[in-house]
Amino acid sequence: MDNANDTPSPSASNTIPEPARHRAPENQDRSSFDHLVIVCCHAIYTGNGDGEDESDWYPTTILSLIAKTLALTLLPPSSPLTRRLHTEPSSTDSYQNLLFSILHFHHLTTHYPLHITLITHLFKRRRFLELHAPAIRWPVDKIQVLGIDPPERVSCAEGLRRGEERDGYGVWKGDLYGCGRRLRGKRVGRGWREEEEEELEVMGEGCEEGVKELLRWEGGESGVQLFPGDLPWATPDSRLSDVASLGGM
Q1: Chain-centroid distance, C-alpha 93
Q2: Interaxial angle between packed helices 209-216 and 94-109, expressed in degrees from 0 to 180 and rounded to the nearest 10
Q3: pLDDT of residue 95 exceeding 50
Q4: How big is the CA angle at 236 (ends 232 and 239), to the nearest 5 degrees?
Q5: What's the whole-number average pLDDT of the chain?
Q6: Please, are residues 226 and 176 in contact by the beta-carbon 8 Å criterion?
Q7: Which residues contact 9 (CB under 8 A, 6 or more apart)?
């Protein structure tokens, strides 16, 4: 939820850290990587074109500071991992943040992570742990969500809670894969175009058939039917455990 008063100052772009621009060398050995750290960032569109120019997007200060603080906590500056950051540019919502980042990790390493640490606004924690992770049948004991909420002077805690229940968790609970009219409409409003569907084919390259099918899964007629196919990261009893965790639907 971007604050309408979050307008960038002329010099702000020179002060916000941009770790995602740092790329690992192409010849770097990534076979031992097993921990995926996802930083979910928001940006405000400040341009007048089609959004293709990167300079037209301004990262919100709050999440940028969260990302910087927590990333440095997890990855000290002396760690070589601070030079191994990549950007997943296609996601337009929290569900895509999780799934697309997993596939991007696979694209870079040819295997899937064993554990995920996700950094976001803390009010979205339940959404990731109770809806998104179960929707893709990611083991709930292999993901943790860290973060902080905006300060009270920016967004009051009660307002965030009500907004999340009404427009976030509450909507995703009835549309697990974000393919209904409301959530799909949000994706389109954030730049997801019909041609982006072709990007799904690219994301699925080198992945198992079940993963490719998951990218197209819309939750059945109800929108809340869990993906029934085989997934390489899912445990044998994941269907039962996930159904139990979503039993309130």
Answers
A1: 7
A2: 160
A3: yes
A4: 95
A5: 75
A6: yes
A7: none
Q: Give the whole-angstrom CA distance, residue 57 versus residue 92.
A: 14
Cβ contact 128:145 at 8 Å: yes
Question: What is the tens place of the pLDDT at every residue in 204-224?
Answer: 889 999 999 999 999 999 999
Say how far apart CA 85 and CA 51 lie, in whole Å.
23
Tell me how far the alpha carbon of residue 135 is from its chain's centroid. 13
Interacting residues of 246 by C-beta distance below 8 A, sequence separation 6+: 130, 131, 134, 176, 224, 226
pLDDT, tens digit (0-9, with 9 covering 90-100), for 139-195: 999 999 988 777 767 678 888 888 888 989 999 999 999 999 999 998 888 877 766
The DSSP line for 148-215 is: -PPPTTTS-HHHHHHHIIIIIHHHHTT-TTS-SHHHHHHHHHTT--GGGHHHHHHHTTTS-HHHHHHH
> Residue 22 corresponds to which tokens in the numbers above?
């740092």
Give the sign of the dihedral formed by CA 102, CA 58, CA 66, CA 172.
Answer: negative
Phi, psi of 21 (to 5 degrees): -75, -15
Q: Is residue 107 within 8 Å of residue 206, measured between CB atoms?
A: yes
Structure tokens at 53: 């120019």
CA–CA dist 41, 65 (Å, integer)? 10
Longest dimension (CA), the chain: 53
The pLDDT confidence band at residue 249, using thresholds 50, 70 and 90, is: very low
Answer whether 158's CB lies under 8 Å from 187's CB. no
